[in-house]
Amino acid sequence: MNIALWVLQVLLAFMFIMAGAMKLFQYEKFAAKADWAKNRGLAVFIGIVEVLGGIGLIVPGLVGIAPVLTALAALGIAIIMLLAVILHISRKEPGVGFTIVLLLVSLFVAYGRFFLEPF
Predict the structure, then answer these.
(1) Considering its fold, how many domains does the chain have in total?
(2) Phi-psi map region of 33: left, alpha, beta (phi>0 left; psi -120 to 50 alpha)
(3) SS3 for 100?
(4) pLDDT tens sequence across 65-74
Protein backbone atom coordinates (compact mmCIF):
# COMPACT_ATOMS: atom_id res chain seq x y z
CA MET A 1 0.00 0.00 0.00
CA ASN A 2 2.88 2.33 0.77
CA ILE A 3 4.22 2.02 -2.79
CA ALA A 4 0.79 2.67 -4.28
CA LEU A 5 0.37 5.78 -2.13
CA TRP A 6 3.81 7.03 -3.14
CA VAL A 7 3.00 6.54 -6.82
CA LEU A 8 -0.26 8.47 -6.43
CA GLN A 9 1.47 11.20 -4.43
CA VAL A 10 4.14 11.67 -7.11
CA LEU A 11 1.54 11.76 -9.90
CA LEU A 12 -0.63 14.25 -8.02
CA ALA A 13 2.40 16.37 -7.11
CA PHE A 14 3.56 16.47 -10.72
CA MET A 15 0.09 17.45 -11.95
CA PHE A 16 -0.43 20.17 -9.38
CA ILE A 17 3.06 21.64 -9.54
CA MET A 18 2.78 21.87 -13.33
CA ALA A 19 -0.75 23.32 -13.23
CA GLY A 20 0.19 25.81 -10.52
CA ALA A 21 3.37 26.84 -12.31
CA MET A 22 1.37 27.53 -15.46
CA LYS A 23 -0.96 29.82 -13.52
CA LEU A 24 2.01 31.59 -11.95
CA PHE A 25 4.51 31.87 -14.78
CA GLN A 26 2.41 31.64 -17.94
CA TYR A 27 -0.72 33.46 -16.82
CA GLU A 28 -1.57 34.98 -20.21
CA LYS A 29 -1.42 31.60 -21.94
CA PHE A 30 -3.50 30.01 -19.16
CA ALA A 31 -6.09 32.80 -19.08
CA ALA A 32 -6.62 32.49 -22.83
CA LYS A 33 -7.77 28.89 -22.29
CA ALA A 34 -9.62 29.23 -18.97
CA ASP A 35 -12.54 31.62 -19.05
CA TRP A 36 -12.79 31.77 -15.25
CA ALA A 37 -9.18 32.98 -14.94
CA LYS A 38 -9.83 36.58 -15.96
CA ASN A 39 -9.18 37.52 -12.33
CA ARG A 40 -5.38 37.36 -12.23
CA GLY A 41 -5.22 37.58 -8.44
CA LEU A 42 -7.44 34.53 -8.01
CA ALA A 43 -5.51 32.53 -10.61
CA VAL A 44 -2.17 33.41 -9.01
CA PHE A 45 -3.49 32.49 -5.55
CA ILE A 46 -4.73 29.13 -6.83
CA GLY A 47 -1.40 28.58 -8.58
CA ILE A 48 0.53 29.22 -5.35
CA VAL A 49 -1.72 26.86 -3.40
CA GLU A 50 -1.37 24.16 -6.06
CA VAL A 51 2.43 24.37 -6.12
CA LEU A 52 2.64 24.30 -2.33
CA GLY A 53 0.19 21.40 -2.19
CA GLY A 54 2.24 19.46 -4.72
CA ILE A 55 5.42 20.06 -2.73
CA GLY A 56 3.58 19.09 0.45
CA LEU A 57 2.66 15.73 -1.05
CA ILE A 58 6.31 14.75 -1.46
CA VAL A 59 8.75 16.61 0.78
CA PRO A 60 7.46 15.84 4.31
CA GLY A 61 7.34 12.09 3.69
CA LEU A 62 10.64 12.12 1.84
CA VAL A 63 12.62 13.91 4.55
CA GLY A 64 10.65 12.50 7.50
CA ILE A 65 9.96 15.90 9.07
CA ALA A 66 6.29 16.39 10.07
CA PRO A 67 5.04 13.69 7.68
CA VAL A 68 1.44 14.36 8.71
CA LEU A 69 1.72 17.36 6.40
CA THR A 70 1.54 14.95 3.45
CA ALA A 71 -1.96 13.85 4.46
CA LEU A 72 -2.94 17.47 5.12
CA ALA A 73 -1.62 18.52 1.70
CA ALA A 74 -3.70 15.77 0.06
CA LEU A 75 -6.74 16.95 2.00
CA GLY A 76 -6.09 20.54 0.91
CA ILE A 77 -5.83 19.46 -2.72
CA ALA A 78 -9.10 17.55 -2.33
CA ILE A 79 -10.75 20.77 -1.13
CA ILE A 80 -9.37 22.65 -4.14
CA MET A 81 -10.71 19.93 -6.45
CA LEU A 82 -14.13 19.95 -4.76
CA LEU A 83 -14.37 23.70 -5.33
CA ALA A 84 -13.20 23.21 -8.93
CA VAL A 85 -15.90 20.58 -9.52
CA ILE A 86 -18.54 22.97 -8.16
CA LEU A 87 -17.23 25.81 -10.36
CA HIS A 88 -17.09 23.71 -13.53
CA ILE A 89 -20.53 22.21 -12.98
CA SER A 90 -22.06 25.63 -12.26
CA ARG A 91 -20.56 26.96 -15.50
CA LYS A 92 -21.66 23.83 -17.41
CA GLU A 93 -18.10 23.26 -18.62
CA PRO A 94 -17.02 19.96 -20.17
CA GLY A 95 -14.28 17.81 -18.70
CA VAL A 96 -15.42 17.85 -15.10
CA GLY A 97 -14.84 14.08 -14.95
CA PHE A 98 -11.06 14.49 -14.80
CA THR A 99 -11.45 16.96 -11.94
CA ILE A 100 -13.60 14.42 -10.08
CA VAL A 101 -10.90 11.77 -10.61
CA LEU A 102 -8.29 14.11 -9.12
CA LEU A 103 -10.63 14.77 -6.19
CA LEU A 104 -11.07 11.04 -5.54
CA VAL A 105 -7.36 10.28 -5.85
CA SER A 106 -6.42 13.07 -3.46
CA LEU A 107 -9.06 11.87 -0.98
CA PHE A 108 -7.64 8.36 -1.22
CA VAL A 109 -4.10 9.62 -0.57
CA ALA A 110 -5.32 11.64 2.42
CA TYR A 111 -7.19 8.64 3.82
CA GLY A 112 -4.24 6.36 3.12
CA ARG A 113 -1.73 8.61 4.84
CA PHE A 114 -4.00 9.33 7.80
CA PHE A 115 -5.22 5.77 8.44
CA LEU A 116 -3.93 3.00 6.16
CA GLU A 117 -0.20 3.65 5.89
CA PRO A 118 0.93 6.66 7.94
CA PHE A 119 4.64 7.45 7.84
Answers:
(1) 1
(2) alpha
(3) helix
(4) 999 999 999 9
Q: What is the pLDDT of residues 39-81, one digit of tens each?
A: 999 999 999 999 999 999 999 999 999 999 999 999 999 999 9
How many whole angstroms separate alpha carbon 79 and alpha carbon 85?
Answer: 10
3-state secondary structure labels for all residues of 35-68: HHHHCHHHHHHHHHHHHHHHHHHHHHHHHCCCCH
CA 41 to chain centre: 18
Domain of 38 in residue numbering reads as: 2-116
| Cβ-contact 6, 33 below 8 angstroms | no
Can you tell me the distance from the alpha carbon of 56 to that of 48, in angstroms, rounded to the nearest whole number? 12
DSSP symbol at 113: I
pLDDT in tens, 93-114: 988 999 999 999 999 999 999 9
